[in-house]
C-alpha cells in the first residue's frame, strides 16, 4: 500500500518568508518523514530542507520526537475541538453522531500526509511527549464514546454493543485506511471515508424497539 506524498523538497525551493520558520520546519519534516520514514530522517536533513538553522529548529522543538508529536498534537487538538462543538450541538443525537463521524473523516482527508506519518511512526516513540499525546487521544475517544452512549440512551444506536467497542471499531478502521488505500485507485480517500461512515451509521442503528431498560453500558 502506498500513500500519496508531497513532492520532494529541493534546494531550489524559494526561501520561506520571514517569521514562518516553524511552518517551514513542520512542512519539511512532514514531507521527509512521509517519503523516507521517521527513523531514516535526520535533524540535519530537516533543517536543510526547511532552509533554517538547527538553532531555529531547537527554538521551536526540543527534539525530533517532539517535532513529530507536535505535528500530530496540533491536528488532534483541532479534531477534539471540532468534536466537542458537534457533540454539544442542538440537533438530534443521531445527526450529531453522523456529523462527528463525517467530520473526522474529512479532517483526516485534509491532513492525510501528517496523520499517516503519525500512524506509521507513533510506535517508535516512548517519551513524555508520546505519553501526553496518548492522553490527548484518549480524550478524543472519550468524547466520541460519550456521544455514542448518548445515542444509545436515546434509542437510536444499538445497545447490545458497548459504546467503547463501537468507538474503537470506527476510529480504528479510519486510522488504518492508510495501510491499504491507494491514491491511484477508483475512489478518493474522502470517498472511502464516506463509505466507512455509511457502514458505521447503518451498522450501529438501533432496531425498531427501544433500548433495554436501564440503558446500555459505556464499556
TrEMBL record:
Alphabetized InterPro entries for the sequence: Homeodomain-like_sf, HTH-type_TetR-like_transc_reg, HTH_TetR, KstR2_TetR_C, Tet_transcr_reg_TetR-rel_C_sf
For this UniProt record, give its keywords in alphabetical order, as a comma-separated list. DNA-binding, Repressor, Transcription, Transcription regulation
Q: Which PROSITE patterns match?
A: HTH_TETR_2
Give the Gene3D superfamilies listed for this entry. Answer: Homeodomain-like, Tetracycline Repressor, domain 2
The ranges of region (Disordered) come to 1-21
DNA binding happens at which residues? 42-61
| A GO molecular-function annotation | transcription cis-regulatory region binding
HTH tetR-type domain ranges (all copies)? 19-79
Name the Pfam families for this protein: TetR_C_24, TetR_N
Q: What is this protein called?
A: TetR family transcriptional regulator
Species per Swiss-Prot/TrEMBL record:
Micromonospora palomenae
Amino acid at each position: 500500500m502506498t500513500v500519496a506524498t508531497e513532492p520532494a523538497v529541493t534546494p531550489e525551493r524559494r526561501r520561506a518568508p520571514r517569521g514562518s520558520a516553524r511552518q517551514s520546519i513542520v512542512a519539511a519534516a512532514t514531507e521527509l518523514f512521509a517519503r523516507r520514514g521517521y527513523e531514516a530522517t535526520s535533524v540535519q536533513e530537516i533543517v536543510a530542507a526547511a532552509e533554517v538553522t538547527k538553532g531555529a529548529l531547537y527554538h521551536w522543538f526540543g527534539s525530533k520526537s517532539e517535532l513529530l508529536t507536535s505535528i500530530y498534537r496540533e491536528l488532534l487538538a483541532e479534531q477534539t475541538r471540532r468534536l466537542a462543538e458537534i457533540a454539544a450541538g442542538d440537533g438530534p443525537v443521531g445527526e450529531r453522531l453522523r456529523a462527528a463521524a463525517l467530520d473526522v473523516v474529512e479532517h483526516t482527508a485534509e491532513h492525510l500526509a501528517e496523520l499517516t506519518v503519525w500512524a506509521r511512526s507513533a510506535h517508535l516513540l516512548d517519551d513524555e511527549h508520546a505519553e501526553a499525546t496518548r492522553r490527548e487521544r484518549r480524550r478524543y475517544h472519550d468524547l466520541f464514546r460519550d456521544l455514542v452512549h448518548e445515542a444509545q440512551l436515546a434509542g437510536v444506536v444499538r445497545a447490545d454493543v458497548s459504546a467503547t467497542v463501537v468507538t474503537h471499531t470506527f476510529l480504528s478502521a479510519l486510522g488504518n485506511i492508510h495501510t491499504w488505500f491507494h491514491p491511484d485507485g477508483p475512489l478518493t480517500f474522502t470517498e472511502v471515508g464516506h463509505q466507512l461512515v455509511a457502514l458505521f451509521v447503518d451498522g450501529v442503528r438501533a432496531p425498531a424497539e427501544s433500548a433495554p431498560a436501564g440503558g446500555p453500558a459505556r464499556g
